[in-house]
Amino acid sequence: MGSWRDVAAAVAQRQPLAAVAVDDFGLPGTLAASLRHLEGLPPPRKLEQPSGWAGVVADALTLARDGWAAKALALGWTAGDLFGIGRRDDWDFQGLAVWLDGRRILMLDEKHAIVAGNPADYRSAFIRGGMRHGTHPTVTPVMLWEFGR
Length: 149
Fold this sequence. Notes:
By secondary structure, this protein is an alpha+beta fold. The protein is built from six helices and five strands. The strands form two sheets. Strands 2-3-4 form a three-stranded antiparallel β-sheet, with helices on both faces. The chain has a two-stranded antiparallel ribbon with strand order 1-5.
């Protein structure tokens, strides 16, 4: 396998990922059901700024609907890598959906998600297992649909 730049160039030449059916997102049944349930939940009680919760939910559903979540799981990512959050707040642990903040994924491999957003944030990378994304041994994330319930 080449560098991430080689992989990104190869991906850029292909067609975008086909959208996965909304009814199952191409995910295991319990995970798909949990995401559908998340869509209807109010913001968690623990949030200091509940206005940002709608964006986190939208990013989680976009990951599923656009097929990125299914691809990530096939590459060895866990549901926690994608949809996890720290028990106290998102600074303890941020899964990809919490971290995205409205940015769109350009490429995803076994360890990275390369995203693009606004012009001030040209390109960024989420590193699976990186700082605040799974390396601290005392932080056990919870799933978004369980956070603050």
